[in-house]
Amino acid sequence: MGSIRPWRLLALADSDSAEALPNAERSPADVREHLDFTLALHHQLAPAADRSFCWSPYSVSSALGLAATATGGKTREQIVGALRAEPSGLLDLLGPAAELPAGSGEPPVLAVANTLWAYEDLPIEESYRVALEDWPGSSVRNAPFLADPERSRQLINADVAETTRELIPELLPEGSVQTRTVAALVNALYLKVSWREAFDTAETTDRPFHAPGGERAVPTMHATRTFGHAAAHGWQAVSLPAAGGVEAVVLLPDADLAAAEAGLGAAELGELLDSLEQRRIALSLPKFKVTGGAELTDSLAALGVHELFTPGADFSPLTSLPLRVSTAVHESVLDVDESGLEGAAATAMMMRLTAVVREPAPLRVEVDRPFLLLVRHRETGAIYFLSRVTRPS
């Protein structure tokens, strides 16, 4: 077989062991639902097809799962509908993926943090504190939101930067913590794993890459060995096993990526991943570093999540105070080279107080005839002036 054309890395998937490949028995409904959510939100988040982009379904799913656990009624229903999963089912998928076995060779590095940041005086339901404990790397921390919004932003950014090994130094931009912000749900993720068999750096050479706008030379890695491979639905898939049961799956379209990506569905992707088989391949693929960032509100709305961002949001499982999400932001970065891959992602949902006041229709008082005007000292009742007004001038 000839060299595989330059590729696009689109997904990271768990592998049970060094030799295992995904198959039908390892693709239950919750995995397909996760694929469906991933592709649905990807189609909403990704910029024009001629631009590189990266995001983390794990991080966004975690933040949404935390939000679903914190909400009730229609608000929760919409989040669960977008996720295609209840929080408990999502935890069954995300929980085991939060721990990687060391194995032999360089151990994998994985850090997951799920944090509720709250103003000190915000009343938090004990049942939510208990539910939060089920999430990997969970904690409740205080920030002086109402007293010092900027300090709160700095605290959250510093914590995310620490978890992500400084790959995401500033998740929250200026202005994202507002004067009435009282809480934030934040997920942070860091992953660094080496390939089970590294690429030889001496074999890396500049090779043509047929990018939108014209061909250009890029540093390209080469290896001829046994990889997992599948071809179906106009795509080729090549799996690169890494430490800790992680694998990178190259998804290479037969036709133009823009058209192929738009038409890729969960069923087709699931079948492609399930049909990977060991095959000897001469693989050529570029080194790369790609980043992505997005405000999630509009993209989540396209998936049916509306009420979360309105004064009608139901956060009663979290607190007795009326809250809504004011902004939801996401950042991600992925770096792939001869030794392996390093990636980080973070997602934050900022929550602010919502004033829910239904004012009655005003009593109309029209002063259109002679009247008296009394001016007094309210506390003592002493009257400073008493006037009759018959002809205002």
UniProtKB/TrEMBL annotation:
Residues 39-392 form the Serpin domain. It holds the Pfam family Serpin. PROSITE patterns: SERPIN. InterPro entries: Serpin_CS, Serpin_dom, Serpin_fam, Serpin_sf, Serpin_sf_1, Serpin_sf_2. Gene3D superfamilies: Alpha-1-antitrypsin, domain 1, Antithrombin, subunit I, domain 2. Belongs to the serpin family. This is Serpin family protein. It comes from Saccharopolyspora halophila. The lineage of its organism: Bacteria, Bacillati, Actinomycetota, Actinomycetes, Pseudonocardiales.
